[in-house]
Amino acid sequence: MPRRSILSTTERDSLLALPEAKDELIRHYTLSETDLSIIGQHRGSANRLGFAVQLCYLRFPGMVLGVDEPPFAPLLRMVAAQLKVPLESWDEYGQREQTRREHLVELQAMFGFKSFTMSDYKREVHKLTELALQTDKGIVLASALVENLRRQSIILPVINAIERASAEAITRANRHIYTALTDPLSAVHRHRLDELLQRKEGSKGTWLAWLRQSPAKPNSRHMLEHIERLKAWQALDLPQGIERLLHQNRLLKIAREGGQMTPADLARFEVQRRYATLVALAIEGMATVTDEIIDLHDRIIGKLFNAAKNKHQQQFQASGKAINDKVRLYGRVGQALLEAKQSGADPFAAIESVLSWDAFTASVGEAQKLAQPAQFDFLHRIGESYATLRRYAPQFLEVLKLRAAPAAKGVLDAIDVLRGMNADNARKVPAGAPTAFVKPRWARLVLTDEGIDRRYYELCALSELKNALRSGDVWVQGSRQFKDFEDYLVPAGKFAAMKLASQLPLAVDTDCDQYLQSRLSLLEQQLARVNRLAGANELPDATITTASGLKVTPLDAAVPDAAQALIDQAAALLPRVKITELLMEVDEWTGFTRHFTHLKTGGTAPDKALLLTTILADGINLGLSKMAESCPGTTYARLSWLQAWHIRDETYSSALGELVNAQLRQPFAGNWGDGTTSSSDGQRFKAGGRAESTGHINPKYGSDPGRTLYTHISDQYAPFSAKVINVGVRDSTYVLDGLLYHESDLAVEEHYTDTAGFTDHVFALMQLLGFRFAPRIRDLGDTRLFIPKGDASYDALGPMISSDRLNIKHIRAHWDEILRLAASIKQGTVTASLMLRKLGSYPRQNGLAVALRELGRIERTLFILDWLQSVELRRRVQVGLNKGEARNALARAVFFYRLGEIRDRSFQQQRYRASGLNLITAAIVLWNTVYLERAVNALRGHAKPVDDALLQYLSPLGWEHINLTGDYLWKSSGKVGAGKFRPLRPMSPP
């Protein structure tokens, strides 16, 4: 049986590819004085050139140049230039095989190059096995092997040997992983795992299928059902700590692979592999269900609060006329009393002059019924929904294994009291129950004259538990999203070693004193400069006055008439194309479909048209069932199989990176930017159908549930990241995720968002991680400037300066914690969004959160001072954000099926929809860029002058010429051959 290949053709080519960039050529192939001296000892131009070229090949990529293989042309030119010999000398050298062999022996002796031996093979396989315990990606292992051999000056073997060593390391790692997951299992454990593949009573599916189901609507019935799933997972009682015996990447990979298998497939696995797969499924399944239960509780509490608030408002509105009548009546009574006091008349007679005393007495009783609580708070109405929480609360508190930081000890103590009451069926809260966690808003309901109100005590505790879970003050054993804050970070010992060795992956000086001295010095300089400009009324298009505060003149966004004419002319030339033809053409240019590898074998999809059909079903929101009907010759079963094995978050991400890189390499895209700036924005899509129960409500968008797709777009219009997020979560939480965790070659330096995209925490982390952050802040005049403590006065900036001063001591006290957090985010130990959610959540105000906020205030103040001085900065931000808004319009047009609603209940399927949409829009952007360049060249070829300064106004986001509907056929157009393009539309006569 042939050995399975772990490298694609492209990966094999790239592994030993020679550098093409000028800087890389200089770095690898610049000869030293010693090199030149040794080379010069050889007689004749041909010998010197040949010897030097072989030396360069041995150094990088680290292999021997083949006898019949011509040298890489850029390398040959560079070496010949350094030696001052003609290029033609190589022709003479290349024919002398014996001389080449003698030179190779000499190079090994003089420069220490060694041949690759069997002992080297065994040693490297052993090293690679350690890496294979973390990842089974062939290219990662092969690259590590090549780099390690280069460092040792060992001549690289043939590519097949490199691939064979990597494959053997993967096999060894797999055996180790299976052993680690199965050796701790007892016979009882194995029996319980086998039962997962049995049919569940009263169901058509297995226990495993039932356990992996996602929850439906957030209500008590579905909560109880999901709690039963968690109890079933916990009943396996797997050996404690078994999930820590291997790297999480491999654990997730095994679980994902097992999740695609049928019970029959799993039953046919070799025994050790079957149990290892079931253990991985159990670990991941338990973490997933735990997180889903906590999310359900969060959403149920949210629904109850919204319902109480709505009832409160509805009652007030319904009583509006009666309240108004009472106000008018008491206005008349009050006026009568005022007149009576002035004239000395009887006040009681004054009241009876307006209405009878009996009517007045009745009106007072009516007013008391109409009156709301003094705080005008709806919280008392939460009690009306107590039964909803009570249905699941006892089991919810019983099944979760909670731990707490000191800040939330009171909440956890209250939970323990409730657990005890549930176990004893007690109805009354003990007199000594903890109440320190009860906030003033709850106190009047919880703490009554008769004692502690059981109903509101439990409601308060469950609400505060929700908040504490969000902030990280309470964590849950077995959870993935709600772990101990410390567990998310780089281990303390490793961090200390990295800092000591100056290896922290941060973009700033890690010495606290030096960093603060630099930033505060710059801050004082900028404050003084802007204060002077403001005092002299010399700020560009901005004024600051005590009376009216800050006024910034809006930018002129008009497109020049000449640019609009060019836009219309170029658009009229773009060929009309079907979306299927467009995708096939883009794939011919880039080969992006090769990234959709098989989950198990790593091979490419056998049917490219079928793969593109599956991707398109996601991108246009049609779904697999409808796509099978719209694509002749395709069945739902084939599409579903391909999606299960080839469509994943990482394959979508890799394919998107390929398209973004292709856009980056397009010369015409340079008219819009150089790839160093980007923007991000959220786009809300309504959640309909089965997804309605999973959507969230944001009053900003009305009462309909929805999801937000948060997208990052480069200055060249390439959308390089997309993420499905909760519409109720602030955009700023996800800004860094897109910048840090994409797979393109973009080197973003400056990033733009709107107001929802910034917080002080984001400002701080952006600076630490090497990004210049430039949000467009709405109501900038209401945003405060923070200055250091001291005697400096900035009178002209007075209306904008905060009364609070920067707390530098707090930053110093928590500097190492800040660096550790930033390093953890940079290394991917934890995502930026997860940390920002926890740091920004109520009620956490711990030292790290406050210190990071103070650091962010420095950066936010510096940014605002730059904004006041630079019209160019304002214009860059506006242009960047406009590109994102225009991209949203294209996305809305592409995502048009099913009324443009997200209707998939599974969060995984929702992510696939977002990824497919982003991939399709990236393909459209690339295709339009290529054909816009051809259109402009055609205009120039017809003696029509084109001003290069106007090309920046063209946009690759148009879709009027693209047919997005109809039957989806994957036939290559006869008009387009290999290396050719489809013809432009004819020009209109002048």
UniProtKB/TrEMBL annotation:
UniProt KW DNA-binding keyword: yes
Chain positions covered by the region annotation Disordered: 671-701
A Pfam family matched in the record: DDE_Tnp_Tn3
Top-level taxon of origin: Bacteria
Segments forming domain DUF4158: 6-169
Keywords of this entry: DNA recombination, DNA-binding, Plasmid, Transposition
Signal sequence region: none
An example Gene Ontology biological process: DNA transposition
Domain Tn3 transposase DDE: 581-968
GO molecular function, one term: transposase activity
NCBIfam families assigned to the protein according to its UniProt record, in alphabetical order: transpos_Tn3 (NF033527)
Family that this chain belongs to: Belongs to the transposase 7 family.
The protein, known as: Tn3 family transposase
Higher taxonomy: Bacteria, Pseudomonadati, Pseudomonadota, Betaproteobacteria, Burkholderiales
